[in-house]
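Milestone M4 deliverable, item 7.
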Amino acid sequence: MNYYSTNGNAPLASLEKAVVKGLAEDRGLYMPERIEKLPKAFFEDISSMSFQDIAYNVASNFFGEDVDEDALQDIVYDTLSFDCPVVKVTDNIYTLELFHGPTLAFKDVGARFMARLLGYFLRRKSSGKTVNVLVATSGDTGSAVANGFLGVEGIHVYVLYPKGKVSPIQECQFTTLGKNITAIEVDGVFDDCQTLVKSAFMDKELNNHMMLTSANSINVARFLPQAFYYFNAYARLSTQLSTSNSDLVMCVPSGNFGNICAALFGHEMGLPIKRFIAANNANDVFYNYLQTGKYEPRPSIQTLANAMDVGDPSNFARIYDLYGKSHERISTLISGAKYQDEQIAETMRQCYSETGYILDPHGACGYRALQEGLKDGEIGVFCETAHPAKFKEKVDDILGIDIEIPARLKAFMEGEKQSVEMTKDFTDFKRFLMQQ
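Output delivered:
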């Protein structure tokens, strides 16, 4: 399958080029030329299928024309060495727990899949050249990508993160690894990190010096696999939905909008979700677009739910393109919600008091949006995108508890921090890369 640019001024690309390059020549995001519907039989059998089998069917629909069948199955099965369970919180609200992977965050799925797919393409080419992966992070992306690519031959990863604006545990997960992982501490906000990455892709001298790609959700191999767990959520609830004659509503805490974008692609493939809710923190650019029809990005502001602190979400371009640039189509399918820090903390306390379930600040936005937005005859699922222990200081303070840190997180915290300090000036970043 070929991939085109959302900006419409770049040549069509193969899957391999889209994955290796990350961003199109005209600075647009790659989109598949078509989205095939999954057969009716798949949905009839889905409740009896394993998560890995479900994901392989979805992956075949996306990538089957471009990746050898056995290799794709190996990639999917190796990626999903953990579950993404659906857990009941209240009578009509469930959480899709996406924190059971190696770094305890939803981005493990996309990062592990991309690392394995990129490795597959590199083995086929055997060029001997190092691929340099640039990734901007507001929290969990950095740890998921760094750990997904750690030790992968022929790949070096540069993780750019805003100084002082990720949680200490998140920072430990990508600054203590060494080997083929370099952490770059940028004196700015997430949007500055993202701008540095995009500017690097557009710099001809830099691209002649080194082979660059991105592992942010701008890369098709990062965001598309995130559709896997939405199909899994439907599979786990399909019997209940049919028995109660209910509709499924999916609520996604949203920052750069790659996660909800993957869910929307699943919907286009036939996944029977009635509607979507994009839950925002105070960075409410998309929420305002839904209300006004005007997309007006602005600098991000720091909040309790730091992984959603994005003022210009890249994947808006994909959503806009997917629905023919129609505000009416987008706002009919997707509604929005936004919450200030005080509301997020209040929701965490309320949920813990009433149900015993511990929300992280991002999941709290999703839970509250369903509480306020579900209608009769609907069952809601929200994404719990990271283990609450990754935000231990905040969670402990808000809930008055001492949440246990899983062993995997403790191991990261024992490592020594290794990072390169950087201004947000592209000239400085380019100079650093040119010396590598």
